[in-house]
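Quick one before lunch.
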Amino acid sequence: MAIDFSDICYLKNPDSITLKADYTQFLLSLCGPTVIDITHEDSEQWYVITTLLHGNEPSGFIALHQWLIQEERPQNVNLRFIICSVEAAQYQPIFSQRFLPGGEDINRCFNSEKQTNYNQRAHLIEDAIKEVSPVLVVDMHNTSGSSPAFCVSAHMNKQHLKLASFFCDNLILSHISLGALMEITIDCPVITLECGGCTDIQANKVAYEAITTLALGVDINNSHKQTIKVIHHPMRLVLAEDIDVSFSLEDQGEDGVTIIENIEQFNYGLCHAGQILGWSDNEGLSNLKLLDEYKNNVIDDYFYFEDNRLIAACDFQIFMATKQRYIAQSDCLFYITA
Ligand SMILES: [Zn+2]
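Model of the zinc ion complex:
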């Protein structure tokens, strides 16, 4: 399938025929990145909700389809939905690919001077967001592993906090620049909503409730739905170059790094000092890098290596842990905050 990276489709107030009978048929009917505008004739205000930047993170899309077929209309606001990596999501079996084989992770292609196809598409999406001068942007994802919902933001002011508080209890403030959509320069709050893992039953519900909440209109200047905990200074645990990772409940004596198989459980609670998180070959901690916001490797401050075991050196919180080997290898194993 040849992909047109210079095009984006537009739908305005689509009818039930366009929306098809279910979200699978609707997904398969799309021809590429698609903007769906649901308008409100008495309002000039726009909210933008993006989803499916990652083709294997369907909760936002499923929730959007569910919301659209009920023919709900927003109150006092116009909604612009942008369905991004349609081709990756359509690749069979559907919702199995973060990005197309041989392609790039588009959520690493924003704010970049590079001229690849995926950078071009990131620009198109950014332009489609800015076209309506929105008052807020919410980018919906699923975590790679099972996880409670949380928000992530590259900036923080009262509006970011209030916006996130409509959806979850935790906001991670991340200054790590990766080229993610939430890093774009725009004069309104942009947050990422991680709805939970795509196999977690609650994730579609989180996404659906986020859409219904936004459709009712949120006042991010005055209302504050619930208290929100801000988590600062996340650090990314990545493999050193050319190091393999596997997952197991015990040390199998593999080369590279073995991460404890139940690592996703740590997305739900604190990891205490002394916890064994995996095993390493004789290269020990040099098989891993823990990168702070300045891309310094601070692995020795948070982990130690003893009898081939990788052990937490202090209490910290783990999030976005996944046992999907491909993500662990190509993106990161997990994030921690102390
Ligand atoms: Zn994602």
